[in-house]
Sequence to fold (506 residues):
Amino acid sequence: MTEQPYDLLIIGGGINGAGIARDAAGRGLRVALCEQGDLAGQTSSKSTKLIHGGLRYLEHYEFRLVREALAEREVLLRAAPHIIWPLSFVLPHHPALRPPWMIRAGLFLYDHLGGRKLLPPSRAIELKDHPAGEPLLKTYRRAFVYSDCWVQDARLVVLNAMDARERGARIMTRTRLMSARREGSRWRATLRSSIDGSQFTLESRAIVNAAGPWIREVLDDRVLVASKKSVRLVVGSHVVVPRLFSHGMAYIFQNADGRVVFAIPYERDFTLIGTTERDFEGAPGEAQISGDEIDYLCGAVNEYFETKLQPDSIAWSYSGVRALFDDEAKSASAVTRDYFLELEAPSGGPSVLSVFGGKITTYRKLAEHALDRLAAPLGVRARTWTERAALPGGDIEHADFDRFHQDFERAHPWLPPALASRLARDYGTRASHLLGDAGGLTDLGERIGADLYEAELDYLMGREWAQSAEDVLWRRTKLGLRFTAAETNRLADWLARAAPASRHSA
Fold:
């Protein structure tokens, strides 16, 4: 029996691909998405993990991008209050760099450009009277505080993919597009699974190329479509170190080169520091932090903190390659973070839409604009809906996570507080699906390591496409920071035994 053609075949399971899949499926389109690795396996899990307007983008006059991103903060905060939450940022005033009037002007714009409602406005503080001053060198006397949001980036991708699947989309991980050829009014695509090596074909009326750093490879080698736009690969690296300060605010540090570096509370016991920005050449999946980047991040932090950061204190590092639209900026940090959509739609033939650039904060608007561009070629009516829809687990009353957290702990008094907090944060209302009828820790099965039990692994494999230890420890959770090598091996063995049954159930 011939499979019914899809309306959209989306290449790439990062935030843009997953967001477009969700939006399209919610509009009633027949959608397939293929990802050559794991969801959020590359760029989308290697961000600074912020939902933000981008304060420094104001200096590059990117007012449209900043306005859109600022407005999106609150849309996303309401859609997923379990994995997105407000965060205060402390900007110490460095007298040798940006003057106070410039910072005040930038923060005034930041407060007013996006129609802020939920987040508090910026303000000035005296560091000697404020907890934010405790870890800083005493030469810093004043600072400015403003608000943005934190996000569990990889989980945001997975939740979009889950919602897409629940609305009818077919999500295929570990599946690579081998080729796609136009046959009449449709694409005929050949795909290959890296799990069992099987190869299959499907037909689609349109293709969305959301392959990120592989966007040119898809265009030039897979679909054979010419593009007039250029992509600039920029790698950003981060380090995670033991906690450098005890309060819950983050820092944004100005540097002499005009860039900024963040120091952000991370997973209770750690501090996340980043990012660097440099042009990249090579295989995107093999990007690693360099010694120069480590020195840069340590130096940036040591310019402000009393406790000096040494390279040997790094617990973890990660590097992600961003495929930015090449606007011929002189430096990697000056390249626009805005997105550009290129539609190639020959008369009577199937179309391909390529996504250049973009940032996590604006992925939902990018998806809306992508569907607007595809409405005419697909002959469908434009209908926006995601602005008012919660993501899986985010259907929390009044988006009040604190109240939900309290109720969750009261409903499951047998859960250790740290585990209850993590489950509520990671899964929101879907945590009840994970726990099922469990009434004690023994009902969760074997403890694999840290606070990870078999019940959570069953959920991750059956509902969230997790297949490897890396999927579980570094994307679905961040338990890799707490697992020993022996526990990681135990997890890998457990997943290998469970994989055949999980794939059958999925």
